[in-house]
Write a structure and sequence with these properties.
alpha+beta; 15 strands; single chain; 19% strand
Length: 400
């Protein structure tokens, strides 16, 4: 039997599962940060620093008390580790064993990383770290061998990354956003479960973890950028549906799967008046086709698009309000002057409740400025242009 949800119900289920907007929290602030990481399953790391980096931004939207020191402390306390999800990410240490299938595949050469392997150099790099302790890529001299790859990395960096990806090295910390590498045996807590999950167990983990964090999903969404997993996921879904562990759900003309317990969330309220300014790499948004299907939001991060072809701006941030993605806000923090620039605020053409939206945005901008260590705010452009005067007035009240 297939459960039928309206598109409004489907959106509500997704947002409540993603903890957006966040519910009132109890306990310590850092415990709330760890809870968010464990619930979402991963937090994507990104290097772009137009505003506060994506991993901090995503956590701040789940935990209003978030401080950037939380993530560093959780890594130091070995409750979080860095590895790969669909991209570079921070993962909860409790899920460590589910990183092993990818590591084993890379070590066995069943799955390639970005670079050609240099076994001799990898052995040399590993020996140095074993003898000297944690090292960074810059601690290895560049011998003049040609740099290769998209980021023109030196050979030792490529060796370090291969050892990291196949599980022989971990990153106990970063310094100025550069990884520090050490032997896994010296980083991993002694009580960590390191048994390799079998294919079926691994598939069930991927399904359950995804649906807990996202409410509903398809096999392709669950296996997104996880090489060679879609057949396993599809087979496990069929079994889980047959024994009642999963429900088939239709919404917006598409078929999804959901955990029975997740549908109970529909009885809870959604804080629709609360506005969230999201990172382009937020867990909610990372699968663009999914956002188009469920939210009617056609989103492209234009920092990878030539400037002349950009429609919204270099780093436009999706804006969530009233249960919908209603706007895009291209921002940049001018840190030396503690000023946040809104280069372009573009509303979705169907948005009509602009007065209520401006009130919600005004309230959230106060927190967003503080999160980005800014005190000043400058608005450059809006779409439509007619909304700029009203928004400028709100900004004047905000910055005094």
């Amino acid at each position: 039997m297939t459960e039928s949800l309206s598109i409004q119900q489907a959106r509500k289920l997704v947002l409540l599962s993603q903890r957006l907007p966040p519910a009132k929290q109890t306990g310590s602030a850092i415990a709330a940060t760890l809870s968010a990481i464990e619930h979402l399953g991963y937090i994507q790391i990104d290097t772009i620093s137009a505003i506060q980096r994506a991993h901090h931004h995503t956590l701040w939207n789940r935990n209003p008390r978030y401080q950037t020191a939380h993530l560093h402390q959780l890594i130091a306390d070995k409750q979080v580790f860095e590895y790969w999800s669909h991209a570079a990410a921070y993962l909860p240490m409790r899920d460590y064993r589910y990183s092993l299938p990818r590591k084993r595949a890379i070590a066995n050469r069943d799955q390639n990383h970005w670079y050609e392997r240099d076994e001799r150099l990898m052995k040399s790099v590993l020996s140095r770290i074993a003898a000297e302790g944690p090292l960074m890529a810059r601690d290895f001299e560049h011998t003049g061998k040609k740099k290769t790859g998209e980021w023109k990395s030196k050979p030792a960096k490529r060796a370090l990354e291969y050892l990291f990806m196949q599980g022989e090295l971990m990153a106990p910390c970063r310094v100025n956003f550069h990884k520090v590498y050490d032997l896994t045996e010296r980083v991993l807590p002694g009580d960590t479960d390191t048994t390799l999950p079998g294919p079926q167990e691994y598939a069930r983990f991927l399904i359950t973890r995804y649906l807990q964090a996202n409410g509903l999903g398809t096999p392709a969404e669950i296996a997104y950028l996880l090489k060679n997993t879609k057949p396993l996921v599809s087979a496990a879904i069929r079994e889980m549906v047959s024994n009642g562990e999963l429900l088939q759900v239709s919404a917006g003309g598409n078929s999804y799967y959901a955990l029975p317990a997740s549908l109970e969330l529909l009885g809870k309220p959604l804080a629709r008046s609360k506005l969230n300014i999201l990172s382009p790499f937020d867990n909610l948004l990372i699968q663009r086709k999914r956002m188009q299907a469920l939210f009617g939001f056609d989103y492209l991060l234009e920092c990878y698009v030539p400037e002349a072809k950009r429609r919204y701006g270099y780093f436009s941030l999706p804006v969530l309000w009233n249960g919908r993605l209603v706007a895009r806000m291209d921002c940049k923090a001018e840190r030396k002057k503690a000023r946040l620039h809104i280069h372009h605020l573009a509303l979705e053409p169907w948005l009509r409740k602009t007065d209520a939206f401006f009130q919600a945005l005004h309230k959230e901008l106060a927190s967003f400025l503080k999160f980005n260590d800014c005190s000043g705010l400058r608005l450059h452009r809006t779409s439509p242009a007619t909304i700029k005067p009203a928004l400028q007035e709100a900004i004047k009240r905000l910055t005094g």
